[in-house]
Write a structure and sequence with these properties.
The protein is of the alpha+beta class and 195 residues long. It starts with 6 loop residues before the first helix and ends with a strand. It is globular.
Length: 195
């Protein structure tokens, strides 16, 4: 069962507010009813693409699904405190893992308290064993490599970026990131998804 302030609970509350059933949300978002129910009832965290589709179907920002509370003024995240901010992990469940543990990208939100924001900044750890599906969603992404190196598959192209490199791309093109050298990679990712 989803916890009180979980992603699943927020989606359920928004559906209740807009008088939407899980079936209607699935139809509007183009996602399966099974995925919607897993998110609402089991607090399953999908990859970003389904989250963006759910936010669009509900007519809210992606941040609305991820926020605990909001501030009107500037939001400052001090060094070492991002661990305490909104955090979620995407990726495919590890084959055969007890409880379906996920391995992949660990997102730590840097501005989860900012009201009315149009960008979603995250510190992301790309684990060496990350298994990501190709993702495509509306919007744009900017990534700066803090440490390590990763490979970006973008459409039919492949690019390797290392510490100090950055990339800006349209998220509508299928893309995914993975460690280039079998080590954990740390990046700053800023995601923009229009309403």
């Amino acid at each position: 069962m989803a916890s009180k302030n979980s992603l699943g609970k927020r989606i359920s509350e928004l559906c209740k507010t807009y008088n939407l059933t899980a079936e209607a949300l699935a139809e509007r978002s183009g996602l399966s009813i099974d995925l919607i129910r897993r998110i609402e009832l089991e607090d399953h965290i999908p990859d970003l693409a389904p989250l963006v589709k759910i936010a669009r179907a509900l007519g809210v920002r992606l941040g609305t699904l991820l926020d605990d509370h909001e501030k009107l003024g500037p939001v400052i995240t001090r060094s070492g405190t991002a661990e305490d901010a909104a955090r979620f992990i995407t990726g495919l469940p590890e084959a055969g893992a007890a409880g379906g543990d996920r391995q992949g990208l660990s997102f730590r939100a840097l501005a989860s308290d900012k009201s009315g924001r149009h960008m979603e900044p995250f510190i992301v750890d790309i684990e060496p064993n990350a298994e990501q599906k190709l993702s495509a969603h509306e919007g744009e992404e900017f990534i700066f490599v803090i440490s390590g190196s990763f490979t970006l598959e973008y459409g039919t192209e492949s690019h390797t970026l290392k510490e100090g490199d950055s990339v800006y791309y349209d998220s509508i093109v299928p893309h995914r990131l993975f460690s280039a050298d079998g080590k954990t990679v740390k990046i700053l990712a800023v995601i923009y998804t229009p309403l």
